[in-house]
Amino acid sequence: MNDVIQLLKAHRSIRKFTAEPLADELVAEIVACGQAAATSSNIQATTVIRVRDPHTRQALAGLAGGQDYVASCGAFLVFCADLHRARLACELQGGAFIPGMTEHFIIATVDVALAAQNCAVAAESLGLGICYIGALRNQPQAVADLLALPEDVYPVFGLCLGHPAQDPEPKPRLPLAAVLKEEVYTDPDGVAAIRAYDERLREYYRRRTGGTKDSCWSEEMKALVGREARPHMRGFLAGRGFSMK
Ligand SMILES: Cc1cc2nc3c(=O)[nH]c(=O)nc-3n(C[C@H](O)[C@H](O)[C@H](O)COP(=O)(O)O)c2cc1C
After folding, report:
1. Contact between 156 and 80 (Cβ < 8 Å)
2. Which of 44, 28, 158, 48 minimizes the C-alpha distance to 110?
3. Is the distance from the beta carbon of residue 171 to the nearest atom of ligand 1 less than 6 Å?
4. Secondary structure letter of residue 17 according to DSSP
5. From CA 87, how far away is CA 147, in angstroms rounded?
6. 87 C-alpha vs ligand 1 centroid, how far in Å?
């Protein structure tokens, strides 16, 4: 064990923040850590928009299904997958940008996730709390309009940063054996692992909520993958230039 490993394992999302805003230099340093992440072919397809305007923050919180911490956290960042810059560079060299490639979409989206997680870890190393906001994709066109996103750019998620006003216990994960496999994909006791994890997670929720939340992983997965998820995304992405060729 070392400090970095300890920090990584102590992660938990924070959804209550003090009113203390984050200094510009601190946010700049955190985003610079995001920039330092590995990036596919050095494309650097991440653009981060820090939203300060309280009205925009409130609007984003509403668009994200009323997640108040989007408005109240110390700094709110929107992580965008950005092929606009690569397009400019390609055209600068007299090339013709080929829009809509699925591979470019994957590259850009993975880049954003890696950069954001670097930011998250950097923030946590400074004692700050973080919460990703995938719910920005509930109404992604409204988000794109609010942030004046050009073509070939889409908002992947938001990230709340701030001084924690709560100290939740880390959420248990699936048993490592369910995730780490040797040589080939095997799933000898997949359902047993899920059942065991269900009970751990149910107990965690009961503890965390004083008994008001009674749920488990398989129930959550039923709600997640047992119904269509944001079916507007395909059309939205196509409209942004990500037509998945
Ligand atoms: C891409 C992404 C999007 C997420 N979106 C939201 C969100 O919109 N609102 C929220 O409260 N938490 C969101 N989360 C946080 C997850 O719910 C959380 O990471 C997960 O339940 C595990 O809990 P932990 O982060 O406390 O370990 C998101 C996490 C990720 C990685």
Report:
1. yes
2. 44
3. yes
4. B
5. 20
6. 31
Q: Can you tell me the distance from the alpha carbon of 62 to that of 51, in angstroms, rounded to the nearest whole number? A: 14
Strand residues in 99-164 grouped as ranges (E): 129-133, 153-162
Quickly count helices (H) and strands (E) in the chain: 11, 4
Query: Is the pLDDT confidence value at 218 over 90?
Result: yes
What digits encode the pLDDT tens for the residues 76-123?
999 999 999 999 999 999 999 999 999 999 999 999 999 999 999 999
Q: Output the CA–CA distances (angstroms, integers) from residue 200 to 142, 169, 175, 206, 221, in the order listed.
A: 38, 13, 10, 10, 15
What is the pLDDT at residue 122?
99
Strand order in the sheet with 129-133: 46-51, 75-82, 153-162, 129-133
Mutate-to-test residue for ligand 1 from 67, 132, 197, 208, highest number of ligand atoms within 8 A of CB: 132
**Tokens representing residue 231 in the block:** 């079916």
